[in-house]
Amino acid sequence: MEPQERSMEAAAVPQELPPDHGVHELFGYVGIEAVLEQMKVKTMKMGFEFNIMVVGQSGLGKSTMVNTLFKSKVSRKASQPGQEERIPKTVQLQSVTHVIEEKGVKMKLTVTDTPGFGDQINNENCWDPIIKYINEQYERYLREEILITRKRKIPDSRVHGCVYFIPPTGHWLRPLDLEFMRRLSKIVNVVPVIAKADTLTLEEREEFKQRIQRDLKAHAISVYPQEDFDEDPDDRLLNDRIREKIPFAVVGADQEHQVNGKRVLGRKTKWGIIEVENPAHCEFPMLRDLLIRSHLQDLKDITHNVHYESYRVRRLNESNRPALSSNNGLPGRDEDGDESNL
Amino acid sequence: MAGAGQPQKDGLRSLSLSGHVGFDTLPDQLVNKSIKQGFCFNILCIGETGSGKSTLINSLFNTSFDDSMSTHFHPNVRLKAQRYELHESNVRLKLTVVSTVGFGDQINKEDSYQPIVDYIDAQFEAYLQEELKIKRSIFNYHDTRIHVCLYIISPTGHSLKTLDLLTMKRLDSKVNIIPLIGKADSISKTELQQFKRKLISELVSSGIHIYQFPTDDEVVSQINTIMNGHLPFAVVGSTEVVKIGNKMVKARQYPWGVVQVENENHCDFVKLREMLICTNMEDLIEQTHTRHYELYRRCRLQEMGFRDTDHENKPVSLQEAYEAKRRKFYLELQRREEETRQKFVQRVKEKEAVLKEAEQRIQAKFEHLMLMHQEEKLKLEKKRKALEEEIALFNMKKANAELLQTQPMVSTPVSLKRDKDRKNSSFT
């Protein structure tokens, strides 16, 4: 390799591209669109990774929700008999990884649960372990990325989406909710949902949602889908419709019942059966569509292109200014020795 | 205090789904994103002047790119790059075609391959710089790295030229090389078989790695293996159409017949197009990124002094090396700043000295002038005084004389008169 004269700290030179001759007409079929097929085949062979985190107080139905989303027993519920799980004294994070496959598409799903969040009497800084975990995943990816001999495919353990469960009080967001969402929406995609929404009537739900939206706007908390990342008018239209409905009022269930001769997932109560997949009853289908069917790749892309990049910028700039005020609840310097400040 | 997340490796067990979840649309989501972004594909075409590069590209992409025939008299090898955007159904392809100009034309061909190697390295370097930046925008970076190199071998029928061997040897670790036999309608079928075999054996014996179509994916492995056996492709390019039967086909018309470009019996053009575009474009792009670029990056970073493990075999972070470099750079910067400042101070001092000297000179002159002025003044004073004294004396004498005149004329009037006359004459 010829040694290049340029030093690494060369000033940013705008990329010099060869002269552009614009759009050319094709006289016949060439076969360029076959590249789409090639891409599909390649990605199906490689498989996908998706990491999701669920945050909320205990008893809001997080594990049930995850099980309903992925239609399988992903998380073990804390409320089952025989589970002697007491509320932990501090927030513990537990990750469970599974491989699921559908129609030839393999997905490595990791669900991170946060028991103990918001359950203590004094909940100050209960978001710190979560933020630390998220940043640790970014750090792991960064370390892999800046190696000299790097792996062909860097294992991606970064959290792509964080589902935050809001208790269905019907009033406003609590200070804990606001604090948490404010801090976390800066480093990860936050999708707020109203948990156990079958305790609210439809009108109460609407009002609650409006109040929450106002609160979020007043505190400048940008939840997923963020407005700044809409790429083109079509996206914006689609996302605007979603943004009107945030946060989704969801109900989770993993038992099937008979309704009108069909077996549906739902909760059976004395006054009726709440069908989880019925858009008239709850907004679970919308949440599922958002998270999985339409915006999964988008979640990953925003995590990679925006949140990871801003973490990287912060991290690489860190050693320059030793007296960096703690921002965004970012934990202190790494404990290990070789990252010491110079 | 708080426990960090420990992924419980359940051995990554598989779960069975009890219903339709819907993530089978993931590949489609990915494809939609790519459609929006568009694809980048960069082809490098190496071949001697007149070997048919431009015609081949025109035929491959079924369009006519602006190209005039180039002369044979270029003093050195240059690369000409042009960007085009092609649309087909909903796929946008940003195609960049780079061709060599003047390759193989010089009398002394020692440095012919150097501009090509430099160009490829420069594209890698640009990408590396973007990747190493702190604030980077790598997802909308226009990728200019060369994804495939079509090397056009002249249809001599004998063997590879030394220039070809040397160039390909230098390029095989930097780019995917697909060797082609250009203007293949000048070789007969039997000669072609022999030629191909000779070429392949020469390439193998020289240790040149040409691009092999991937055979690990069941969907395409069979056809790729067959195609691998047909390398190098013997191609004929044409942009003119000739009527055969009742169809208009791309062909070259000779007095003894018509060579149809898209006829598999006549040449391997269709195979090339299939392999290059329809089947393996994605793989070419991936190989460039994961193999050639990574190799370049590794060598370059090691050159710049980064290491993954230092001499005690402890993992050294890139950041530390970054930091050390940055410190060095700042020290250098500071030193240069000092230097410049010193120079500046010196210059100022010098200028000051000069000005001071000038000031002193002017001061001296001024004083001198003042002195002279004073002297003149004194002189004039003296003169004036002298004159005044003379006037006083004269007045006195005049008064005396008048006094004597009014006195009675006594003894010495003549002498007086004579005195008076003398006095008067002294005034004339």
What key attributes describe this structure?
heterodimer, A: 342 residues, alpha/beta, Rossmann fold, six-stranded mixed beta sheet, 8 helices, 10 strands, 33% helix, disordered N terminus, disordered C terminus, B: Rossmann fold, three-stranded antiparallel beta sheet, elongated
The whole-angstrom Rg of chain A is 23 Å
Count the beta strands of chain B: 11
Query: Uncertain runs of chain B with pLDDT below 50, 5 residues or more?
Result: 1-10, 310-316
Order of helices and strands of chain B: EEHEHEEHEHEHHEEEEHHHH
Q: In the CATH scheme, what's the topology name of the domain at 30-304 in chain B?
A: Rossmann fold
Q: What is the architecture of the domain at 42-74 and 89-252 and 280-318 in chain A at the second tier of CATH?
A: 3-Layer(aba) Sandwich
Which shape of chain B, going by the Cα principal axes? Answer: elongated
Based on secondary structure, the structural category of chain B is alpha/beta
Question: Your description of this structure?
Answer:
The complex is a heterodimer of chains A (342) and B (428). In chain A, 33% of the residues lie in helices and 18% in strands. Chain A is of the alpha/beta class and 342 residues long. Chain A has a domain at 42-74 and 89-252 and 280-318: P-loop containing nucleotide triphosphate hydrolases (Rossmann fold), CATH 3.40.50.300. A six-stranded mixed beta sheet of chain A has the order 3-4-2-5-6-7, with helices on both faces. The model of chain A is unreliable at 1-13 and 321-342 (pLDDT under 50). Chain B has 428 residues and is of the alpha/beta class. Chain B is 51% helix and 15% strand. Chain B is built from ten helices and eleven strands. Chain B has helices at 26-37, 53-60, 114-132, 162-171, 189-205, 218-230, 269-279, 281-304, 318-406, 413-427, and strands at 6-8, 14-15, 39-46, 78-88, 91-101, 148-153, 177-181, 233-234, 241-244, 247-254, 257-260. In chain B, helix 7 packs across helix 8. Chain B is elongated, with a radius of gyration of 50 Å. Mean pLDDT of chain B is 82; it is low at 1-10 and 310-316. At the A-B interface, strand 1, helix 1, strand 3, strand 4 and helix 3 of A face strand 1, strand 2, helix 1, strand 4 and strand 5 of B. Chain A: One of its GO terms (molecular function) is GTP binding.
